[in-house]
Amino acid sequence: MQLIGEYPVAIDNKGRLRLPTALLRQLGDKPADDGGYAFVVNRGFEKCLTLYPKPVWEGITAKLSKLNRFNDRNRMFIRSFYLGASPVDTDSADRILLQKHHMDYAGLEDQAILIAMDDRIEIWSPNQHESMQAIDPNDFADLANQVMGGGDDGVGSHDDTTLDDLLTGRL
For 123, which of 29, 38, 96, 102 is 20 to 30 Å away at the CA? Predict the structure, then answer.
């Protein structure tokens, strides 16, 4: 799955937001039994929410289930990752309902920015989105070198990323 795009959306007074048609087309056929799309919404690593298509969530949780839970760092990561995760399906109008605790965490009110990235969608408040975009171009170039440089073909390998890297921010 290769999702791309940035989409401003409205949030109604019940906490519902409509997923844009252009984004839904990228997801393909509706996998949920009731005709909607099935997702899991969770807190993002920054002050945003992450919307995982159900098959993507299942792939991530399969990897997490292989971690040694006797290791305290692994337990801490697993517990933190699952904290606040909730299943959510689109309704007949292609809307999802965000719970109040999710909206509070991400600072969402009546507007949001959806950022489709690879196999997931981040949900940002307009203010947090603006702050996140404020990266200096030189800093971005340095970050790109750290993240993408270093492999045999000039591209870093995601397979080399460890849980320790994730927890300490060394990506």
Answer: 29
CA distance 30 to 48: 25
Supply the DSSP symbol for 149: -
Structure confidence by residue, pLDDT tens digits, 48-83: 999 999 999 999 999 999 998 999 999 999 999 999
Could you tell me if 36 and 141 are in contact, meaning their C-beta atoms sit under 8 angstroms apart?
Answer: no
Dihedrals phi, psi of 17, to nearest 5 degrees: -130, 145
Tokens of 88: 């959510």
* CATH 3.40.1550.20 location in the chain: 3-133
Q: In a 10 Å sphere around its CB, with 0-12 CB exposed, 13-18 middle and 19+ buried, how is residue 14 labelled? A: exposed
Whole-number Å distance between alpha carbons of 55 and 134: 32
Structural tokens at position 143? 């970050």
Phi-psi region of 69 (alpha: psi -120 to 50; beta: other; left: phi over 0): alpha
- Residue indicated by tokens 């995982």: 52
What is the residue type of 87? P
